[in-house]
Amino acid sequence: MIFTPKAGLKKSRMDWALFLSVIVLLAVGTLVIFSSVAVLPQQAKIVRTQLIAIPLALIVFGAAWSLNYQIYQDQWKYVYGILLVILAGVLLFGVVDKGARSWYRLPFFSVQPSEFARVGLILVLANFLDKRIGKIRELQTVLGAFALCLPVFFLLIKQPDFSAILITFPVVILMLFASGASVSHLAIILGYAFISALFPVLWSVINLNPDLLDNALAGYFFHLSDSWLNAGSFVAATAAGAWWLWRMSVRLYANVSGVYFAGTALVLILGFFSGMVVKNQMKDYQHKRIEVFLSPEADSRGAGYNLLQARIAIGSGGILGRGIFSGTQSRLGFVPERHTDFILAVVGEEMGFWGMLLVTGLYVLMMRRIMQGARLARDRFGYLVNCGIFAMFLVYFCINFGMLLGFAPVAGVPLPLLSYGGSNLVATLAALGIAESVYARRYALV
Amino acid sequence: MRDRQIPQERFDLIWALACCAAILFLLRLVNLQVIGAARYREMAEKNRTQVISQAAPRGRIFSSDEVAIATSKPSFSLIYFPGGDKTKSSMDSMAKALAGPLGADFETLRKTIYTAASKEKPVRLAENLPPKVMLSLSELKAIHPGIDIIVEARRFYPFGAYLSHLIGYIGKMDQSDWTARSKDKNYSMDSRLGKMGLEKMYEKELKGKDGGIYLEVDSRGRLNRVLESRKWVPGADIFLTIDSKAQAAAEEGLSKSISGRGAVVAIDPRNGAIIAFASAPDYDPNMFVLSGSEKESSSIGKALPGFNLALQGAYPPGSIFKIVTAAALLESGRVRPDEKFNCPGYYDAGNRVFKCWDKRGHGQMNFVEGLANSCDVYFYNAGQRAGALAIEKYANAFRLGQASGIAMLDENKGNVFGPGTRAAKKSYWFIGDTLNLAIGQGETLITPIQAAGLISAVANRGVFHRPYYVDHIIRSDGQLFYKASPEVLGTVELKDSTWSLMQEGLHSVVEEGTGKAAQIEGAEIYGKTGTAQNPQGKDHAWFVAYATVGGAPSRIAVAVLVEHGEHGASAAVPIAKAVIEAALREDLKAVNNVPGPAVPPQAPSVPAMGVL
After folding, report:
1. Hey, are the CB atoms on A397 and B21 less than 8 Å from each other?
2. Mean per-residue pLDDT for B9-22?
3. Cβ A364–B1 below 8 Å, yes or no?
4. Confidence check: pLDDT of A42 > 70
5. Is the pLDDT of residue B540 over 70?
6. What is the location of CATH 3.40.710.10 in chain B?
7. Mean per-residue pLDDT for A149-167?
8. For residue B606, is pLDDT > 70?
9. What residues of A are in contact with residue B26 (Cβ under 8 Å)?
């Protein structure tokens, strides 16, 4: 899209389409949250938190909007420092909820720092990519970007908060991709991530089908993570295999650089160790989720049951829905996590297909406006920041819808603006405020 | 932003990805919410509702004089709704509290509650609660939420064992019942159904339509509210052809008899309607309704099929078979009715001597005298003259060896033997066989209901009706659902003179012969006693009879069997007399109160029904 000064001059400082879609989504979300918690014992607390969080989030939105976004680039070291400090601090001073030490308990409410860390990381990363844009096609840049993320991921794993990593990792990849990183470099990163994810999944598969253990190879894989000796044997075997293949290729006069063999072996080994760390850090219920995704019928009363109930709720809504405050599936408690991760199931049940269409449409409109903001941004940093925010919403959107509709495992990821959660709401509106700030300070306007 | 260092088409690619994802999700939503809406709505409804079915009252069963033989009465059940935040210890304490008043075992009660809690299905903890227990239970209801008392209709037989062999009984579903009816929405695993007799044969009519309480429950099975209480539709009422007084007389007679084992079947010869149907020993069908007796009832249920002596007991007919022999010898034309045979008290068959039942001998006997005194020697002689083949032919003509056709299960067909069956078995026929056949010994076996059919055919001159016991069925909305109509199964074609002679002979049995004890003031009784030799023990006593009042066609024919009753005359005759008296009580009253013969002028003096 070609920018024309005329179009820019006439436009206001506020992207009203973005703002309106956000407000409508927020209104729908609040209504559905109230409906879904109406019969819960903790109703009063949830309603109160939501009613406090909305004005707070709007204030943060306004502040982020009025503040020049370029300050984040200037002060990126502070942003990064605060980000690491709050994540480290929660490990020391945080309280444990649902098995994860990820909350600050404040006098009136609790704060989840990982929500804010996500937004901060987008800002830091945008700055990094902006600075290195000339060398974006070098592997060092890609690795550097991940080196920036590594301490954050490490602190998140320590909590552990896998869903935050699940959201952030694709955002980083998408930002690198959008800023022009080499696809083959991204493929290496993805391969590494794939292997670190593959090992826990493989182990879950073997757990599900114990007779696979009779297979020597599967049995070997299964016991790899048991001791450092086994792990070491795997590393040695991989390295030796890579070396042997390289020697073979030399003998056969195949013109293949040794870097590829070394790289492949390195990715395999690193992926294996990450997978081992992930597997050992995973909680039981997280293992369970992978198993349920692999074979939903194995556990009809657990996570698979929950997913089925959520699907029944959506399906039973039909075209017109059953009416706000009248969904039986959600109100009688068949839908799990109905006011957080499965809020869409309540929308589907009570507002029907039209409600889902409205939510999807508003989400797509919102993302489109953020994209437009990036296109109009006065500098590359603004472009990259909006890119990151766009990617963040896209990842949330895909994972939450995909999980509900059976395309992805149950991940415990909320849907921003709809799901209940004060920290998430404030962080989301902060991100939107920054996007608006990029829009407001677009090229033509002073 | 225009920046050559950033490839902006990559953002477009990501945007396209987002659009694809959104479209994919919307297509899936169309699939779920538009196409699958009805299916998922149904699943959601099933999720939130639980049904406690309330058994509809079964149709009542009345005798022909409208005495209720089987009714329903309200009964109270204790229901446990699982769910809530029940802990194991609270369930334990509930089981402990309930075990006392219910008189149930604590362990089994606890197990029931646990399984109900794990399946999240309501369960009946106890049924048929007595009023005393109800009071203490309603106190416990307040302490232990989750239990409740509901009212249901339960089968009740006011007279206990009365007519039990015809009525049958109801019981819980077993595996075979369940596989046959699992698709029927009107039955659930704990509903009860007819297991025997009329209750089983007319299950469909008697069942009615179960009602139910539809409850809304939350995901943990806690009761939220009552959605709907659907009223049941009671089953259809069945009116029997049984005469309650005659039935009572039959049962009383059997229970007072020597052995207490036997059967009485009384049929209306005009149409085959069963007036009395008794078999002893009998059982109280109420005990199958009581809860907690499932084990007990299943063992009794297995022992029962051989129980219904009227239908399933096959006995040698003894002298009542002489009716068949009489028909054979008169029809054969080889014996003149006035021809006399001398009875010295025995019959010499060459290699063996056959005795008459009266060792002193009867002297010279003609047909009527022979029948009246049941003289064996007369029938040895005359039967040999007529021939075994003729006797076998008429035994078959009188439908011996064939099921009576009554609508009941497991009927015994009895057995007919003669030269024909022997030939079929490639065996020999001896002269002694002819003699045994003629007096109803040997291999011939008949059931009491076949004996009743036989005497009924004599009364109406040869017509066999299908015996039936359901007169009409009235549905709960008052509409007539079914009305029985007589069905002719077959006719025995005999000469008019043969019928008259046979009836004369049977009349003289009662007037001056072996059945004198059956005489009733105001009625003409025609009968035949029988004493069937029984190698296992004392002889079985038979009596078959029919009665006419004032020349009208006979309205009752009765067959009585008393196992080990020794003599028909002493054991069986009084029972038959009592049954006939009870059945004809109105007619007898009319005849005996009015001086002079109360013959309706237009009625024919000779019963002519059945002979064309």
Report:
1. yes
2. 93
3. no
4. yes
5. yes
6. 244-283+310-593
7. 86
8. no
9. 356-357, 360
pLDDT at residue B53, as a whole number: 74
pTM of the model: 0.64
Q: What is the pLDDT of residues B472-483, one digit of tens each?
A: 999 988 889 899
Give CATH superfamily name and number for B244-283+310-593.
Answer: DD-peptidase/beta-lactamase superfamily (3.40.710.10)
Contact yes or no for B468/B274 (Cβ under 8 A): yes
For residue B195 the two structure tokens come to: 């297991």
**Cβ–Cβ of A333/B220 closer than 8 Å?**
yes
Mapping DSSP to helix (H, G, I), strand (E, B) and coil, where does residue A172 land?
A: helix
Q: Which of B578, B511, B527 is nearest to B264 (CA)?
A: B578
Q: Above 90 in pLDDT, residue A222?
A: no
The per-residue DSSP string of A372-408 comes to HHHHH-SSHHHHHHHHHHHHHHHHHHHHHHHHHHTSS
Model pLDDT, residue B96: 83
Residues paired with B416 in a beta bridge: none
Give domain status of residue A136, yes or no. yes
Specify the number of domains making up chain A. Answer: 1
The SS3 call for residue A289 is helix
In chain B, pLDDT over 90 holds for what percent of residues?
Answer: 36
Q: Are A180 and B5 in contact (CB < 8 Å)?
A: yes
d(CA B278, CA B249): 10
Pairing type for strands B237-240 and B61-62 reads parallel
Whole-number CA gyration radius for chain A:
24
A402 touches B at CB < 8 Å: yes
Question: Which residues in chain B are closer than 8 Å to A3, comparing Cβ atoms?
Answer: 1-2
Q: What is the ipTM of this complex?
A: 0.86
pLDDT the model gives residue A234: 81
pLDDT digits (tens, 9 = 90+) for B385-439: 999 999 999 999 999 999 998 988 888 899 999 998 999 988 889 888 999 999 9
> CB distance from A355 to chain B under 8 Å?
no
> A130: which 2 tokens?
């902006």
| Structure confidence by residue, pLDDT tens digits, A271-326 | 777 777 777 777 777 777 666 666 555 554 556 677 888 889 999 999 998 888 88
- By residue range, what is the domain housing residue A316? 5-440
Contact B6/A315, CB-based, under 8 Å? no
3-state secondary structure of B35: helix
Percent of chain A clearing pLDDT 90 (strictly above): 43
Q: Is residue A445 part of a domain?
A: no
Q: Which residues make up the CATH 3.90.1310.10 domain(s) of chain B?
A: 49-240
Task: Say whether residue B175 is in contact with chain A using an 8 A CB cutoff.
Answer: no
Residue B71 — φ and ψ, nearest 5°?
-135, -175
CB burial of residue A310 (10 Å; 0-12, 13-18, 19+): buried
The answer to whether B23 contacts chain A (CB < 8 Å) is no
Q: Which residues of B touch A133 (CB under 8 A)?
A: 5-6
CATH of the domain spanning B49-240: 3.90.1310.10
Residue B33 to residue A380, Cβ atoms within 8 A: no
Is residue A80, in this structure, part of any structural domain at all? yes
Whether residue A446 lies inside any domain: the answer is no
Extended strands (E) in B409-549: 463-465, 470-474, 480-483, 488-491, 524-532, 540-548
Quote the tokens at residue A3. 């920018």
